[in-house]
From TrEMBL:
Stretches for region Disordered: 303-346
Bias (Polar residues): 313-334
Descriptive protein name: DUF3068 domain-containing protein
Spans through the membrane: 277-297
Pfam families associated with the record: PorA
InterPro entries: PorA
UniProt keyword list: Membrane, Transmembrane, Transmembrane helix
Protein's organism: Micromonospora profundi
Amino acid sequence: MRPTSGAILVAAGAFLIVGAVATPLIVAPALVKVPLDQSSVTVSEAQNATVLDFSTLSERSGVNLTAHRAVRGDVNDGNADRAVFNVGVRVIDDADKEITVSTDRVALDRRTAEAVACCAEDINGAPFKHEGLTYTFPFGTEKKTYQYFDNTARKAYPAKYLGTEKLQGLTVYKFEMTAEPVQISEIDVPGSLVGSAEPTVTAGRYYANTRTLWVEPDSGVIVKGQEKQLQTLRDATGTDKVKIIDATLIFNEETQKQQAKAAKDARGQINLLTRTVPIALGVLGLLLVLLGMFIIIRATRRGPSGAPVRSGDQPTTELPSQRSAEPADDSTTPAGGRHAVERSES
């Protein structure tokens, strides 16, 4: 093959090697992002919970609860850098009686998953600026403490890394966030409900929660979530008098499997862009470079082909007559004679 072919192969190989370097550094970050059209429903369940029946103003114990959380992406308000989620959470008992309902609208960075101020964010319809992580962890989650936002307390708390576990066939990082009791509202209730002789009193509604999250680190997907939530009414001295809700809500098995599949799918796409494609491009590029260099070196060692010999240039086989007085003249050796033939045979 000609040296030109080798040069083309070297150039093509170099191009693929550059692509192998650029894919994880440039292409992957541009493509691996929180989706704009996020759509998911998670289900958490609690056994033997205690709730306040507001119709009778009495506590009910031994209640089984189910919490449905729907997350929908607002594609129109999202862009290359941010995603916008509309979230609704509804907690019901076995009789489908509504215990609590809440809504949330948040914008987050599509790479870091951190909340960003944008797009009429609110909690239960009231404007509110979120902070920290919400609903997902970043791609490439690290073994460190993150700030995780609690919608009920309306504050971000440290989610501390506790260790690594196996869950649904995945290696996950376990984080725990603790919200100490904080007053979230006030409610007018009969005084007798909180131990007061007054017919009506304003009681403080307090909230506390220990949230545990099991996160697949490559994708940032929360495979399992658990909340040990306590809401109470307190009297004037700050003593808990009535439990509004006391429950441990955990992702059910079906939701965990659903989240694990989402994590595996996302991890597969990430690995494709950060490992598989770069390695394939790099290996193929290196092979093309080596093949091209081999062709160039081989062609160079062989040297250029001899010029074609014309019929009029054939060397004479006759020797000068020994009787001739004229000496043989070597300058009459035609161009392209012996020396050209010898090059062409080398």
